[in-house]
Amino acid sequence: MLKFAPKSLAPKLLLVTGAIIAILLIATNFVLISQTRDRVGALISQQAETEAKAIAQGIVTDTSALASAARTMSGLIAHGKQMGVLDRKAVIDILKTNLEQQKMAFGSWFAEAPQGFDTLQAQSKDKLDVGGNKNGVFTPYWTKDKSGGISLSTFGEDYEAEWYAKAAKANGGAITKPYVASEIQPPTAMSSIAYPVIVDGKIIGVTGVDVSLSMLAEHISKLTPFGTGKIFIVSHDGKWLAAPDAALLNKDYDGVQPDAVKAAISDGRVTPIPGLENSDGEGYTRLIYPFELTGLSVKWALIIDIPDAAVAAPIQDQTYMMIAGGLVMMVAAMLGLYLAARSFVARPLEGLLASVGRLSAGDYSEPVRGQDRSDETGAVARALETFRGRLADSNRLEAEAAEARQLGEAERNRTESE
User: Fold this and answer.
1) Tens-digit pLDDT profile for residues 109-130
2) d(CA 81, CA 83)
3) Rounded to an integer, what distance in angstroms lies between the CA atom of residue 153 and that of residue 140?
4) 245 beta partners
5) 93 phi, psi to nearest 5 deg
């Protein structure tokens, strides 16, 4: 049996080989784990960008639908007015129908230019059924409540406000910066998509749809990428459209690295901000994904917070698998080395040691074992066999000489006695 004595050759071979295997496994696992971390990190980033692209595309699709609805209303009102078949109540019905058909819309409205739609301002003051505000200006406004019901109201004309002036000056579609509509109860943070209504080359008003930021934020808050990730939206002028806290809606972005967010929106470049930590001490990476609202020439930015655990978990699993696999390989290698040492080192050496023991005891009768091996132990056995033969011959000659001396001595004694 193989004995693990401190000075034994086989245990030393096992220990040295085992140490080398362990070092190689540790070095290999370190390299593989490092490569795995990089690959997983790259895959997570790629997946985050893919999810951001899908979410952004969904927002673009929704805003495009709203923009298309506003553009359609503009065309209908312009055509009907040009044909002389639309009055105030007909326009109010168009606005209502549009709002009912748009799931993401909060409001649908029309604001006439100064005496642009008709000349009925004097008799339309504070008459809701014909969309007259306190000055009689035609400003009908349909809005949704939390339960999904819709109601009609009017609002004050403000030709310098962005929701009117931007579309009128651009002579085309426009989306406003986030603002708070204080005339609505309760006051609502929103953004408006507006189109001018043009008849015979003259703007008779502006029509549009409103997007409630709270509705947008509520929709976005339901999305949790990577299990615990979070998603927010920042507008082109750096304000929260979907924020970590509802109180931040329509306020300046006050999150990490605001300059990086502004630069990402301006350059249209996807920007990761790694090494962040939330209030619970959990690490995360913030991905800034800018996207353009089709047909409105405006960029928003989607912000995705990717928890570090999304990267750490698969790396940890891979590490455990590598360690377990390495240990299995090491045990298998050591077992194989043990069997090899037992077969190719220990047993031949045991045979040689037994033969040497017999020779040292003066027993030259048995040939040395292991002479048939083709390795070094076989060479040693054959050399030892030659030595055994010489010792046997020497011992035989010495015995014969001793016997001859004894015979001669006996013959001499016999002669002397006669």
Assistant:
1) 999 999 999 999 999 999 999 9
2) 5
3) 6
4) none
5) -65, -40
